[in-house]
Amino acid sequence: MLLFASACLATRSEFDRLNQCQLDNINALEPDHRVESEAGLTETWNPNNPELKCAGVSLIRRTIDPNGLHLPSFSPSPQLIFIIQGKGVLGLSLPGCPETYEEPRSSQSRQGSRQQQGDSHQKIRRFRKGDIIAIPSGIPYWTYNHGDEPLVAISLLDTSNIANQLDSTPRVFYLGGNPETEFPETQEEQQGRHRQKHSYPVGRRSGHHQQEEESEEQNEGNSVLSGFSSEFLAQTFNTEEDTAKRLRSPRDERSQIVRVEGGLRIINPKGKEEEEEKEQSHSHSHREEEEEEEEDEEKQRSEERKNGLEETICSAKIRENIADAAGADLYNPRAGRIRTANSLTLPVLRYLRLSAEYVRLYRNGIYAPHWNINANSLLYVIRGEGRVRIVNFQGDAVFDNKVRKGQLVVVPQNFVVAEQAGEEEGLEYVVFKTNDRAAVSHVQQVLRATPAEVLANAFGLRQRQVTELKLSGNRGPLSQRENISDLESESKSESEFLILGPSLPRTPISVPSLEPELSPSLSPSSTPESESVSVPGPSRPSVLQESAPPAPTLVYQRRSKPDLLQKQIQSPEPEVSTENDSSSDDCAISDTCDTNPVDLPIALRKDKRSCPSLYRHPISQYVSTKHLSTQYQSFIAAVDSVKIPSSVEEALQNRN
């Protein structure tokens, strides 16, 4: 009977958890609670929101001022942190790992009486804007802002993760300080249950009341060490009682982010190198170190292995930059770029069962409709504004609104979502996903992978429409919205791509007609008013030239011989007699006769060629001579009658 009851309760609990994702409407969420500290700000979202309950997560946004230190803390839920702005250092306290960063002992103290013990601690990790940082469950960590601008980070707590053996209530445990409650909504619920649980009978109420007063005296602070007495801490850590009292932090009003006066001094090999190279070039050396660090991280990326030898927990890589444009997984120069971090690129995510995606859409950029196959996702807007559309399984748009900086939108598993950037500025956001290998399916890919007959019968399309749907719309997930105002800019952008090829474009050039006056036997309709010649040139063809009507006759040169062509076009027409010299040689102009026809210009509008041996003028290689005027025929005959010397001696003999 008890087994049956427990099974029913488990089934009911599972049903309630799954039923939380039956969302008829999704809202864009903003932080509901804020905690101001000495050197920063902590903002949280209400975990009781239906959207967050569906995803089984909670979120925290922290802003740390320069020289601000976020106190060591840990959570039973694994965390995934994205750095929105700034840079800093982070330290983890991994159990069982040695203190690999050691400071050498000084030989003598300032008084010269005794030696000083050098500091030692575990590895320190640097991070910067665009980094994704993985924090395992139960591992204490701290962060420090050593930059000149505020450090802003958004943290995801996966409260429904298998590593969290407690309930779905978000909890953050601080080792020191007197932090304020970051999720007051859950604390109120717990306090209500605590009062109901401790409603004792009248006879026992006095004894328990005395115990509660003693515990309240001990729990003056909100850190985990505040619950222990000073005497016990002094015995445990073998220290003075005054030190133990400070560990409890009973009246510390600085909260969870404190200011470090004079900056934080830690053992950091990169920091020492920068100090040594300050006199030479501080900025240049720092940039080179960051590039070398990124190259080392790229070399460490490999396929997933499960033998446990490729990476130890003490030296595990916990961060990866996903905002770098050079490493984009999807890229469209007009629409934007996308980069993903999962367990294949960052192996530690396999234990967290989380992943992240960075998306940056340019102006009017569109991320086509898609859905997450095996994960819930949370979209946090970093910068800009745009529109997000989410459709459920019933075809209803559960969300179709504009989003702006600082807002959060939850996209349940298999809900179809599409994003579009605004016209004034782009849209930049990060997506947290509740699966270390979250897979995405795009509607366009599904349509292209489906047979045409299936699409025609499914949507009632014609064959032409199916072809247009599959081929004409053959774009990637990223595209740009086209409107009339952007046509001019797009055409200019397209012309820039045209000149990237090895061949140069041909530009039509209008030249004067070879016939200055009309012959009575030549009708005006058969004579072109002007002829055009196209020669290779470095000029870029404009859209207006391409759309203009073609000239009546266009002559193109196959090979580059501009000198011969210009001489033939620009040669004047002298007045000559009409006498024909019948004694001219059949091949008076040997260069023209021996020239390869491939090297000669060729007319687009041709007629029947009549090239008798009497007329060997070069013009006969271009157009038919039977349509020439009588005067021009006489000119050709006179020119052909001139014998060209074949040698220098022959030319000297016939000087006249």
From TrEMBL:
Ranges of compositional bias, category Basic and acidic residues: 242-256, 279-288, 298-308
PANTHER family registered for this protein in UniProt: GLYCININ G5, OS03G0336100 PROTEIN-RELATED
Organism: Pisum sativum (Garden pea)
Biased composition (Low complexity): 106-119, 510-544
MF annotations from Gene Ontology: nutrient reservoir activity
Gene3D superfamilies listed in its UniProt record: Jelly Rolls
Family: Belongs to the 11S seed storage protein (globulins) family.
Subunit architecture: Hexamer; each subunit is composed of an acidic and a basic chain derived from a single precursor and linked by a disulfide bond.
Function: This protein found in the seeds of many leguminous and non-leguminous plants is the source of sulfur-containing amino acids in seed meals.
InterPro entries: 11S_seedstore_CS, 11S_seedstore_pln, Cupin_1, RmlC-like_jellyroll, RmlC_Cupin_sf, Seed_Storage-Functional
Listed name of the protein: Cupin type-1 domain-containing protein
Pfam families: Cupin_1 (PF00190)
Region annotated Disordered, chain positions: 95-129, 173-223, 241-308, 508-592
Record keywords: Disulfide bond, Seed storage protein, Signal, Storage protein
Domain Cupin type-1: 26-245, 320-467
Gene Ontology CC: one annotated term: endoplasmic reticulum
Keyword Signal found: yes
